[in-house]
Amino acid sequence: MNNQRRRASHRPATQTSQDGEQATYGKRVLLAGASGTIGTAIAAELKQRGYWVRGMTRRASDIKVDVDEIFVGDLLEPNTLESAVSGVDIVISAAGAPPGFVGSRSGRYSFPGIDDYGNRNLLNAAYKAKVRQFAYSSVFGGRFMGMSEYIRSHESFATALKTSGMRYHVVRTTPVFDSFEGLLKRARKAKIRVIGGGGALLNPIHRDDFAVAFVDAVEAHEPEVDIGGPEILTRREIAELAVEAWGKIPKIRSLPLALASYWSRFSVFRGGHNKFVSAVNTMSSVTDLVAPEKGSLLLSEYFSEQVARWSEDG
Asked: Which of 18, 125, 180, 207 is the most exposed place for a label (fewest CB within 10 A)?
């Protein structure tokens, strides 16, 4: 069965580097997770630079960016992956379980299940197909939050990739601006609670800035890169920016860490995945997560643009 839906039949010309090796520009790429927030940005950046892109997703209608082919497959079903990696030069995975709360099917979307086991299935398929390069979009914080299942699953796969014998790229990012959408919506009431006083430092990054840095790392053949945004903010400052984007005066209150940790335990009744989400949300709220600064887009501008867009939509 052919799972692919062709968008374009052309194959871009390749270039040759000085040492005779085919240059990165013009290569064929499989992008897993092409319908996600980060995957969409990476796909757009790849196309901007002239790559041929096959976007992999579980539902073709979820892909909102123009790619050359759409491939319907599932990381948890290895038999769908052989065709996905066929004929490509680079495999990029931006695929992972949802970083937020999910509904009754949470077991299928667990971090261990998709971020680790599922990506290992893709890695095995790529290895068997003799793909030479594999790049992985991961999360920054492994050295600080290694006990979190969210981090552990990412780092477990990163270890598998690094020992695969393939040319690899592990690009770890601080949270992208989109991850604060829930906070921004709550900020409309001007009252926000921050865990532990909100003093933890963070430099989030716009997904487009991350995509540029990600593809730069692949083209430069950098094995491991940490990426953050251009400004360092406290969690309290981020909350204040969210409220101010609505034109209101912030009323920020502190939620004791002990109480937040106690409440997070009850999320287990909503499913195992939601338990892990709650745990990492609590832990990251009180942990400094500052990575090397990249990009130029600011969180305050992103918040203002989102509020304006929501206001237009009613």
From this structure: 18
